[in-house]
Design a protein that fits this description.
There is one protein chain. Helix content is about 35%, strand content about 20%. By secondary structure, the chain is an alpha/beta fold. A seven-stranded mixed β-sheet has the order 1-2-3-4-5-6-7, with helices on one face. Helix 4 runs antiparallel to helix 5, helix 6 runs antiparallel to helix 7 and helix 7 packs across helix 9. The longest helix has 22 residues. The structure holds zinc ion (ZN) (2 copies). The site of one zinc ion has 4 residues, from loops.
């Protein structure tokens, strides 16, 4: 679906690009007013569908060479599909948060190095060699992504689009340098993958990612709840208005997962791999080993994120030796 996001917002256009379940589609947005025009994310590039980004620009009457810049909410593959081509075609700066350098290194570094790093990281968390290999085989072998004109953003920066002022909010968690864009006058939020309507974004801990991504995520969604947001424009799915309800749902989802993680550690210390195998997955209906290998990979990162958050809350501790084991901190009598 292409066109204006909402009839009354003449400065915001959206392309919704089909992708596979469960997300079904990914959005990219064009913010344009006066001489300013920014693409926010560049969508996904499935082989079989037309180039929605070019159509989006032409429907909005903006030639690619007239873009002011490309803003990335984060550097996951489903949000940067046309980036290489658009960079080469337009030469415009690519605006992203400084902490997304970590995501670029994890996803787009040299394949052999990434695989080696992840392999020893899995090993340090007690994942058997065969189980690790199954998950590692799902890592795409994509070549390095080169940003030709990166412009590194910080939280609190303001991006002017004509008369509009979009504030950059660092919303770390789903990726280290994930950002949302907030326009205070209309209380509009471009959420990226931080808050979605029908899905819980993956919050994982990975080699090189900042410690306690779940704690960062929970802090930043609570902050969003304080902004009085009217409309949210997500990275996947349709715009929505009830962001506070969705934030509440996310917080309780993670509280359930934290409780499951604590229950998995009752009785004896366990590795993260043992914890992942002890907690229920997919609406409590599947065991870890039943998940497809790619989902096991993501679920393992989630398990680590929950363990790190419990550690930050001083509820669990871990050993330093490999494989790392985790245990519940004994409560001391007052
Ligand atoms: Zn993402
Ligand atoms: Zn996404």
């Amino acid at each position: 679906m292409l066109g204006l996001v909402m009839q009354r917002e003449a400065d915001i256009h959206r392309a919704s690009v089909p992708m596979e379940a469960p997300l079904m589609s990914v959005n990219c947005y064009l913010l344009s007013e006066g001489d300013d025009a920014y693409l926010v994310d560049t969508a996904w590039t499935p082989q079989s569908t037309p180039d929605h980004v070019t159509t989006l620009l032409s429907e909005a009457g903006v030639r690619p060479q007239e873009l002011t810049g490309i803003i990335l909410t984060h550097c996951h593959r489903d949000h940067i599909g046309h980036l290489v081509r658009l960079q080469a075609m337009t030469g415009v700066p690519v605006l992203l948060h400084t902490d997304e350098a970590k995501t670029l290194s994890l996803i787009f570094g040299a394949y052999a190095r990434r695989r080696r790093e992840l392999q020893s990281w899995f090993q340090s968390h007690g994942v058997p060699v065969g189980a690790a290999a199954d998950m590692l085989d799902t890592i795409p072998k994509t070549q390095t992504l080169e940003l030709l004109r990166p412009h590194w953003l910080s939280g609190g920066d303001v991006i002017r689009v004509g008369s509009r002022r979009w504030r950059v909010l660092l919303t770390s968690g789903h990726s280290p340098g994930h950002i949302c864009l907030f326009e205070p006058e209309r209380r509009l939020l471009l959420t990226g993958d931080h808050i979605l309507n029908n899905e819980s974004p993956n919050i994982g801990a990975w080699p090189g990612s900042p410690i306690d991504p779940l704690g960062r995520y929970m802090t930043s969604v609570r902050y969003l709840a304080s902004l009085g947001i009217d409309w949210s424009l997500p990275g996947h799915g349709e715009p929505f208005q009830d962001v506070e309800r969705l934030i509440g749902r996310q917080l309780s989802h993670h509280q359930f997962r934290l409780n499951d993680t604590m229950a998995a550690l009752a009785g004896r210390p366990r590795t993260a791999f043992e914890v992942a195998n002890s907690v229920p997955w997919v609406r409590r209906s599947m065991r870890f080993e039943q998940l497809p290998a790619r989902h096991r990979y993501l679920a393992f990162g989630e398990t680590l994120a929950h363990l790190q958050h419990l550690e930050a809350l001083n509820m669990v501790q871990r050993s330093m030796a490999s494989p790392i084991v985790w245990w519940v901190v004994a409560k001391t009598a007052e």
